[in-house]
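Cross-check.
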Amino acid sequence: MTNALVILAVVTAVALFSAWWKRRDGRVRSVSDQFTPDEIQAVGAAPGVPLLLEFTAPNCAPCRATRQVLDDVSALWPDVAVVAIDVADAMTVVKAHHVLRAPTTFVLAADGTVRGRISGVPDPGELADLLEDDGPKPPKGRRARVSADVHVEAPSRALPRWARRSKVA
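Predicted model, tokenized:
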């Protein structure tokens, strides 16, 4: 009987952790953080431009999916740079900003302020909303293909924010 209770407790704990992890994965989190110009240069980007910075790892399948989402969404914002860097190549930056897993993506404003932090594959709609709120605007009528099933529309001020989320085709 005691063994059954222990197994039940472990299964319940794993299920709760799994639900929490899935809910958190790929969501934009607000953080109060700042990248210095030296840190931005250390990851291979030019300071002074909005940046999607992905920390990646070799043989990481979610990292490849993240890169595809970042490239497709950033196609709507030509002024936004996209940089993917291996965590092993930028350990001082990784430690300074507490990157604990790959992929981790930072959305940086032109001054280096972190607008959002995403662990896992980002939701294209949330990423587009965050970029829209940051200032650079996509050309009107542009559409980026995000995956075989998901498309990101160029944001329209006429629609409410919830209606501009990613749509399944």
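Strands lie at 28-29, 51-56, 81-86, 104-108, 114-119, 143-145, 150-153, 167-168. Helices lie at 2-24, 37-42, 61-74, 91-96, 124-134. Passed to J.P. for a second look.
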